[in-house]
């Protein structure tokens, strides 16, 4: 519903304003639309004669003429407007590339920058820690020690 | 203590912490419901080919999405306030302990009957016995009798610290020149770890809190032993 109203042409410029549109139980100012892009254009002589022909019966118009008339008024067909692009492929490719780059940076850091972890991360220490946590009944209600079967000395299935 | 890569709360060792666990479940469920609804609406908005540019007003939905959040907030506030007042109830403690924060250790004073005081330093990593927990163990634990209401007065001797034990649901700032009081009851015996929770300098990460809840007889023999050690 076009709510911008062209008032007049001045020197091949259209002057327009927005119009109050009655919306049933309220009133709205619909001024988020400018005039269509091709409201004022210079037509070639064939286009002008085609526009004259358009004033008659449309049955006499050939398919190419109808398409030419459409192209005068509109930039793209619906098919052209709705088609997607292949841009997403570049985006995803760039994303994976930077993931990989970050991964390489992280691996390099681990090898060449970080020092050794504390000795408490050794396997035997961790086993003793685990046994100590079970002996101390750490989180016995629903957490850690509740998963251990103390009779059979194994994790609960 | 938490097991490695634990995400949720530790099991509650005090009744207040139990209440907090259940309240957290309640509030988190509400949060999940709201987030799911919003996510669904976003996906529906983004993935439609339809357009609608001419809605002018919509009183009904405006009323709904004003009243419903108010109701949700009340549903969250009521259990929350209940727990808040629960924590402030008169509890007639059996024991009063003072926990003083220093840079960078805690000191505990049991002065109800005798004059017992001691410092609690972290055990350095290289001095740990096999199986002890790095950055969590302390040389002297704060021993309390199990299932007894304990009052704890928290303060600091130099800078801000904070006395926190997650399993008991306690965190209280240690402010120099101020006494902060809180209370707890341990529902079960065990050892409960915490860490200083207010930045206090270079070794802020290295002044843990260890609370050991034991039966009363053990507490009595422990405090006699500590008094003897102190007097030596």
How does this model look, in words?
Helix content of chain A is 41%, strand content 15%. A two-stranded antiparallel ribbon of chain A has the order 1-2. In chain A, strands 3-4 form a two-stranded antiparallel ribbon. Chain A is rod-shaped and about 100 Å long. In chain A, helix 1 packs across helix 2 (63-73). Chain A is α+β, with helices and mostly antiparallel strands and 157 residues long. In chain B, strand 2 and strand 3 form a beta hairpin. Chain B has two domains: 13-86, Helix Hairpins, CATH 1.10.287.90; 93-229, Cupredoxins -  blue copper proteins (Immunoglobulin-like, Sandwich), CATH 2.60.40.420. Chain B is of the alpha+beta class. Chain B starts with 14 loop residues before the first helix and ends with a helix. The model of chain B has no long low-confidence stretch (mean pLDDT 95). At the A-B interface, helix 5 of A face loops of B.
How would you concisely characterize the structure shown here?
The complex is a heterodimer of chains A (157) and B (232). Chain A has 157 residues and is α+β, with helices and mostly antiparallel strands. Chain A has helices at 45-54, 63-73, 78-82, 87-112, 123-135, and strands at residues 4-10, 13-18, 20-22, 27-29, 148-149, 154-155.
What order do the helices and strands come in, and which of them pair?
The complex is a heterodimer of chains A (157) and B (232).
Chain A: E1 4-10, E2 13-18, E3 20-22, E4 27-29, H1 45-54, H2 63-73, H3 78-82, H4 87-112, H5 123-135, E5 148-149, E6 154-155
Antiparallel strand pairs in A: 1-2, 3-4, 5-6
Helix pairs in contact in A: 1-2
Chain B: H1 15-46, H2 59-87, E1 95-102, E2 105-110, E3 116-120, E4 142-145, E5 150-156, E6 161-165, E7 170-174, E8 180-184, E9 190-195, E10 208-214, H3 216-231
Parallel strand pairs in B: 1-5, 4-10
Antiparallel strand pairs in B: 1-2, 2-3, 5-8, 6-7, 9-10
Helix pairs in contact in B: 1-2
């Amino acid at each position: 519903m076009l709510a911008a109203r062209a008032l007049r042409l001045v020197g091949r410029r259209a002057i327009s304003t927005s119009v109050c549109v009655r919306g049933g139980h309220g009133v709205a100012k619909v001024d988020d639309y400018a005039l269509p892009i091709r409201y004022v254009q210079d037509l070639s002589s064939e286009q002008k004669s085609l526009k004259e022909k358009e004033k008659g019966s449309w049955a006499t118009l050939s398919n190419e003429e109808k398409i030419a008339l459409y192209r005068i008024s509109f930039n793209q067909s619906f098919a052209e407007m709705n088609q997607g692009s292949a841009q997403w492929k570049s985006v995803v490719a760039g994303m994976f590339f930077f993931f990989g780059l970050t991964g390489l940076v992280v691996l390099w850091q681990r090898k060449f920058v970080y020092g050794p972890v504390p000795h408490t991360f050794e396997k035997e220490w961790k086993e003793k820690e685990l046994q100590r946590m079970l002996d101390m009944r750490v989180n016995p209600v629903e957490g850690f020690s509740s998963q251990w079967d103390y009779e059979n000395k194994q994790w609960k299935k | 203590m938490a097991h490695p890569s634990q995400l949720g709360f530790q099991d509650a060792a005090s009744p207040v912490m139990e209440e907090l666990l259940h309240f957290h479940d309640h509030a988190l469920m509400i949060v999940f419901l709201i987030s799911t609804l919003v996510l669904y609406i976003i996906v529906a908005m983004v993935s439609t080919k339809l357009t609608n540019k001419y809605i002018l007003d919509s009183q009904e939905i405006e009323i709904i999405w004003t009243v419903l959040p108010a109701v949700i907030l009340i549903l969250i506030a009521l259990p929350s306030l209940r727990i808040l007042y629960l924590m402030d109830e008169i509890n007639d403690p059996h024991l009063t302990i003072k926990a003083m924060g220093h840079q960078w250790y805690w000191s505990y004073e049991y002065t109800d009957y005798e004059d017992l005081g001691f410092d609690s330093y972290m055990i350095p990593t290289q001095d740990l016995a096999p199986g002890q927990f790095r950055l969590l163990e302390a040389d002297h634990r704060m021993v309390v009798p199990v299932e007894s209401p304990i009052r704890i007065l928290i303060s600091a001797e130099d800078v801000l610290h904070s006395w926190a034990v997650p399993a008991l649901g306690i965190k209280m700032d240690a402010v120099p020149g101020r006494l902060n009081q809180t209370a707890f009851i341990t529902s079960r015996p065990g050892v409960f770890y915490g860490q200083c929770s207010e930045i206090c300098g270079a070794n802020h990460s290295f002044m843990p809190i260890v609370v050991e809840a034991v039966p009363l007889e053990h507490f009595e023999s422990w405090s006699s032993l500590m008094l003897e050690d102190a007097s030596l």
